[in-house]
């Protein structure tokens, strides 16, 4: 199982690296619009959203939209290997480089318990039509998502939305929907 996931991860990283910058910008804009148009997003009071690296689907516009609309926004902070907390932010300017080069809030920002979160936006390298996602192998999001009943949306390039099931383990948590630049796919 781990070898199969590792091979798929390597393939998806190569596909992602080959994306032209202009295509990325157009895709990211379309995904942002789709997320912000979701009923679950619009009705959510507290939003949890990953902070994208340069290669991932951008989330700054989603975070900014949530802040402008008065939503409580929290983003991940890596604490120990495999463990992250949700920390409240008031501005993107509060983020600093953290583990793995990912922007995160400082340690003094308030922790938001997973039970308080209404809507989670999570990254993925690829996803399947059943809502399962392939991440980077650290298990951070699966460990976090099993603590919340929030609506979960994974952001995925349409070209990496797989029509065959991903290899999965008992600890893998499916998302409520997969948001691509072409469609929002939901099993629920």
TrEMBL record:
GO MF, one annotated term: 5-formyltetrahydrofolate cyclo-ligase activity
Binding site for substrate: 56
Residues reported to bind ATP: 5-9, 133-141
Database matches in Pfam families: 5-FTHF_cyc-lig
Keywords: ATP-binding, Ligase, Magnesium, Metal-binding, Nucleotide-binding
Enzyme Commission number: 6.3.3.2
GO biological-process terms attached to the record: folic acid-containing compound biosynthetic process; tetrahydrofolate interconversion
Cofactor: Mg(2+)
Class of enzymatic activity (EC top level): ligase
Known catalytic reactions: (6S)-5-formyl-5,6,7,8-tetrahydrofolate + ATP = (6R)-5,10-methenyltetrahydrofolate + ADP + phosphate
Gene3D superfamilies linked to this entry: NagB/RpiA/CoA transferase-like
Family per record: Belongs to the 5-formyltetrahydrofolate cyclo-ligase family.
Protein name according to UniProt: 5-formyltetrahydrofolate cyclo-ligase
């Amino acid at each position: 199982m781990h070898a199969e996931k590792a091979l798929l991860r390597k393939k998806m990283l190569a596909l992602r690296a080959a994306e032209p910058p202009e295509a990325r910008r157009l895709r990211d804009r379309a995904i942002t619009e789709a997320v912000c148009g979701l009923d679950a997003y619009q009705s959510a009071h507290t939003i949890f959203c990953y902070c994208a690296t340069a290669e991932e689907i951008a989330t700054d516009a989603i975070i900014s939209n949530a802040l402008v609309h008065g939503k409580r926004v929290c983003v991940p902070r890596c604490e120990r290997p495999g463990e992250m907390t949700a920390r409240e932010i008031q501005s993107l300017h509060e983020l600093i480089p953290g583990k793995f080069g990912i922007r995160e809030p400082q340690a003094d920002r308030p922790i938001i318990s997973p039970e308080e979160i209404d809507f989670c936006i999570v990254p993925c390298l690829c996803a399947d039509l059943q809502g399962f996602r392939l991440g980077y192998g650290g298990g951070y999001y699966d460990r976090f998502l099993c603590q919340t009943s929030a609506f979960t949306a994974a952001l995925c390039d349409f070209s990496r939305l797989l029509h065959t099931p991903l290899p999965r383990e008992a600890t893998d948590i499916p998302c409520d929907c997969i948001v691509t630049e072409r469609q929002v796919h939901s099993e629920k």
